[in-house]
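Inverse folding, one chain.
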């Protein structure tokens, strides 16, 4: 894909305020309700202090963006500059949107505190084995690391901005399971995802790129057809508890060059094995806590 400098820099971050909200695209004309730690508030009540953001740094990073784009493969370039992530505050209230490129630049994460909404899918088969993927070598962030089944972002579009019953996030998960792993939508109905919790974390990938995400943890138990997309995934495997613990041992010992994604490691260390009990017992809903946002480091 040919990518001009104007195309790379055309999508600037927008943050909401009462004066600017009327000029935003249709998705934000939806009725918003957000579950925080203690209460549900209307979108306008929580976010009405946000201002329109205009970055004076954009003129200084245009050249960097063009250079970065030239160094990416076509698929990752399209995703980085065309996908619009959902910006949120630390209470998971939507405050705007920006390109995937900007949301993953550590300079912008640190200087502008850009935080975006994400999801992590943990898919188990009927033998209660967890499907893992190794990210492709062409990934801009965390290439070739092992991670949970699918990790990505709901986009700034109507179907993925729906707050009720986390439907927007579940719609995004179904979309990306097809994109990354070739899992048909009928194999993973959106009503079969169980949201268990939310985590907030920040993690650098290298000196330039990183993550700052409010991540929804979605569990699902289904036998599925898997056809990995090589632009996204290098390898896959199902693991039981003992096999995952052996993988962790090898990672910690520095064996075979194995690495885990930081978000997956945080979930493993804080939640996964106790939630695995609920997977096997069929009691996932008992483990769900969508009111708390766990700030993990």
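Residues assigned per position:
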């Amino acid at each position: 894909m040919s990518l001009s400098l104007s195309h790379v820099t055309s999508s600037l971050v927008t943050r909401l305020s009462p004066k600017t909200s009327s000029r935003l695209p249709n998705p934000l004309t939806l009725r918003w309700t957000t579950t925080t730690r203690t209460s549900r508030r209307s979108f306008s009540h929580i976010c009405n202090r946000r201002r329109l953001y205009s970055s004076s740094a954009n003129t200084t990073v245009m050249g960097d963006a063009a250079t970065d784009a030239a160094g990416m493969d076509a698929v990752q370039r399209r995703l980085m500059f065309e996908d619009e992530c959902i910006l949120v505050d630390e209470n998971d209230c939507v405050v705007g949107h920006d390109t995937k490129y900007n949301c993953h630049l550590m300079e912008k994460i640190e200087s502008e505190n850009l935080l975006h909404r994400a999801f992590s899918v943990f898919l188990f088969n009927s033998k209660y084995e967890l499907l893992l993927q190794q990210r492709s070598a062409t990934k801009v962030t965390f290439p070739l690391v092992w991670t949970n089944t699918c990790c990505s972002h709901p986009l700034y579009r109507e179907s993925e901005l729906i707050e009720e019953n986390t439907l927007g996030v579940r719609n995004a998960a179904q979309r990306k399971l097809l994109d990354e792993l070739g899992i048909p939508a009928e194999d993973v109905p959106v009503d079969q995802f169980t949201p268990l919790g939310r985590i907030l974390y920040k993690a650098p990938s290298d000196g330039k790129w990183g993550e700052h995400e409010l991540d929804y943890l979605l569990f699902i138990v289904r036998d599925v057809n898997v056809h990995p997309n090589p632009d996204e995934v290098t390898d896959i495997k199902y693991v039981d508890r003992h096999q995952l613990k052996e993988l962790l041992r090898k990672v910690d010992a520095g064996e075979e060059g194995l690495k885990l994604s930081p978000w997956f490691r945080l979930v493993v260390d804080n939640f996964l094995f106790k939630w695995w009990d609920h997977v096997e017992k069929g009691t996932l809903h008992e483990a769900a806590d969508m009111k708390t946002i766990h700030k993990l480091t």
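The chain has two domains: 5-110, 116-295. Confidence is low (pLDDT under 50) at residues 1-63.
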